[in-house]
Design goal:
This protein has nine helices and eight strands. It is α/β, with parallel strands linked by helices. The structure holds pyridoxal-5'-phosphate.
Amino acid sequence: MAIGEEIRKIHQMLPDGVELCAVSKFHDADAIAEAYAAGQRIFGESRVQELLGKTAALPADIRWHFIGHLQTNKVRRLLPAVALIESVDSEHLLEVIDEESAKAGIVSRVLMQVHVAREETKFGFLPEELLEYFRCRRFETLKATHICGVMGMASNTDDADRVRADFHSIAEVYRSIKEIAPDLRGFDTLSMGMSGDWPIAVDEGANLVRIGTAIFGPRQY
Ligand SMILES: *Cc1c(COP(=O)(O)O)cnc(C)c1O
């Protein structure tokens, strides 16, 4: 099916209040332009160089989300180009983002990536680590960073019960943080769900889904 049709189909299926991040990594500017023409405005990329190249070639009202592992030496170049960094996976990275944002005179928006899936290689905070960060109110030292919520992934498996349990755990971390720090303003984004599992994620409370393959087809590595 054509990219534009897929975009429209997913928009129709998503409940009110759930946003779509179209994951365009490894797809070219023409593919993104097709999705844009169908009304899509949020796109997700996982590599800094690739994202920067695309921002230059595409309309300025696109809101770019960074969703990959971010190296600290690339933070400065990335910041002016992104609307949201969904994949903050360490306190050190958060500190660098905050320092660089302050220096640049901007406020950056981020999600904290939580790791619940079974795979060993995935990045992110363990749930208990993340709760500890908020319990100790270490976010109060941030000068130029707005923590807007949590991002997570389910285990890569066909076992729907496992996937649902993972999303449930991520949603619980999100709700616990709200309880621990009720004064955190604008902490309202729960990003979870990809091509193969997003309906379960939405069912478990996601209000931002990140869908690539179902829109653009297999990635062109
Ligand atoms: C690649 C990627 C996606 C999209 O995955 P699809 O299966 O192609 O929908 C979503 N989230 C993250 C963090 C990714 O790296």
